[in-house]
């Protein structure tokens, strides 16, 4: 489906309007938006991506299997976008057996070392050997609790990609950084360091999850408008790093206290390409509703009426 100049200007206008009221320390000029106004020729070229992060849950393999089955029953045949669950290592293969045909089962982290005296390590090559396709890197809990640095996270990303898997790189500012208008700076630094050495070609296997630390597990979800503004900023940083085509094809997900109630508003934003969900991904009914998000009819109608 070709996109007309009318569609491009509609979304450019929307994005610029949203961004104009948002202060970031890094001057970011001529911001445009993307899910519908990709520089390529299709509407919605970026496939939505709904993902869950179980963290250190549930407590047993039996419970993990039950939870996976319940979640899997919400992934209907009509769902033509990506759904993934990041689960604790001991459950990966059992969950894959149960729902691997419906969704991707990923790992919550890995260690970048490939072999040797690294007790407790889980290497990318080990994950690859059990058919893991997606690995999380840089989750804020790993950054803070496990003291993972940007350099370490970068090494993880590079190795995950070298093994042919896909990486979801999490970035995001703390409460204090948000208050000081440092959102753009923090995202730029974490993106540049985290993706150092990652080629433009490999970016097709990278997804960015914007997760403001102040919104993770706190119940404080960023409003769709704030999240959209930051996603536009992140996309513009990617433009500077990789050029427009790659930046507009890269999926940027939002994470931070997403619920079945907030999902529709978030997914209606043109630069929010999906979500990474923690707490609610342990609640099958709520996560099922998140997987089956609904776009506002007016929004869909407006898109359909755009002269393409
Ligand atoms: C997360 O763990 O990545 C997350 C966003 O958690 P929650 O949805 O519970 O805030």
Integer-rounded radius of gyration: 19 Å
As a percent range, the share of helical residues equals 40-55%
Mean pLDDT: 87
The number of E-state strands comes to 8
Name the assembly state. Answer: single chain
- Write the CATH architecture name: Alpha-Beta Barrel
| Ions, cofactors and other bound molecules | phosphoenolpyruvate
Q: Overview of this structure, please?
A:
This protein is of the alpha/beta class and 308 residues long. The protein has one domain: TIM Barrel (Alpha-Beta Barrel). The protein is 40% helix and 12% strand. The chain is built from 13 helices and 8 strands. An 8-stranded parallel beta sheet has the order 3-2-1-8-7-6-5-4. Helix 2 runs parallel beside helix 12 (284-291) and helix 8 (183-194) packs across helix 9 (224-242). It is globular and about 50 Å long. Phosphoenolpyruvate is lined by residues 53, 55, 211, 216-217, 255-258, 276-279.
Question: What is the structure about, briefly put?
Answer:
The protein has 308 residues and is of the alpha/beta class. The chain has helices spanning 5-20, 61-72, 92-99, 124-129, 140-144, 150-162, 175-179, 183-194, 224-242, 244-249, 263-267, 284-291, 297-305, and strands at residues 49-53, 82-87, 104-107, 134-137, 166-171, 206-210, 252-255, 274-277. The chain is built from 13 helices and eight strands.
Task: Map the helices and strands.
Elements: H1 5-20, E1 49-53, H2 61-72, E2 82-87, H3 92-99, E3 104-107, H4 124-129, E4 134-137, H5 140-144, H6 150-162, E5 166-171, H7 175-179, H8 183-194, E6 206-210, H9 224-242, H10 244-249, E7 252-255, H11 263-267, E8 274-277, H12 284-291, H13 297-305
Parallel strand pairs: 1-2, 1-8, 2-3, 4-5, 5-6, 6-7, 7-8
Helix pairs in contact: 2-3, 2-12, 8-9
The structure holds phosphoenolpyruvate.
């Amino acid at each position: 489906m070709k996109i007309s100049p009318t569609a491009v200007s509609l979304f450019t206008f929307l994005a610029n309007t949203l961004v104009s009221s948002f202060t970031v320390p890094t001057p970011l000029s001529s911001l445009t938006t993307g899910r519908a106004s990709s520089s390529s020729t299709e509407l919605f070229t970026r496939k939505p991506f709904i993902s869950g992060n179980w963290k250190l849950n549930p407590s047993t393999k039996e419970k993990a299997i039950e939870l996976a089955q319940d979640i899997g029953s919400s992934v209907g045949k009509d769902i033509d976008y990506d759904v993934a669950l990041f689960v604790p290592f001991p459950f990966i293969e059992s969950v894959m057996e149960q729902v691997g045909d419906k969704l991707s089962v990923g790992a919550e982290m890995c260690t970048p070392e490939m072999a040797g005296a690294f007790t407790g390590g889980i290497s990318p090559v080990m994950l690859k050997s059990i058919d893991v396709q997606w690995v999380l890197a840089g989750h804020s809990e790993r950054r803070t609790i496990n003291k993972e640095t940007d350099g370490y996270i970068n090494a993880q990303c590079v190795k995950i990609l070298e093994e042919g898997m896909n990486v979801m790189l999490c970035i995001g500012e703390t409460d204090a950084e948000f208050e000081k208008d440092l959102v753009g700076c923090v995202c730029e630094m974490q993106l540049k360091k985290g993706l150092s050495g990652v080629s433009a070609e490999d970016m097709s296997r990278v997804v960015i999850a914007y997760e403001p630390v102040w919104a993770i597990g706190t119940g404080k979800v960023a409003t769709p408008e704030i999240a959209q503004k930051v996603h536009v900023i992140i996309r513009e940083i990617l433009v500077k790093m990789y050029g427009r085509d790659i930046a507009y094809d890269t999926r940027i997900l939002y994470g931070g206290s997403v619920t079945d109630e907030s999902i529709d508003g978030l997914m209606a934003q043109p630069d929010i390409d999906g979500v990474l969900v923690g707490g609610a991904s342990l609640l099958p009914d709520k996560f099922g509703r998140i997987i089956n998000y609904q776009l506002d009819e007016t929004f869909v109608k407006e898109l359909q009426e755009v002269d393409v």
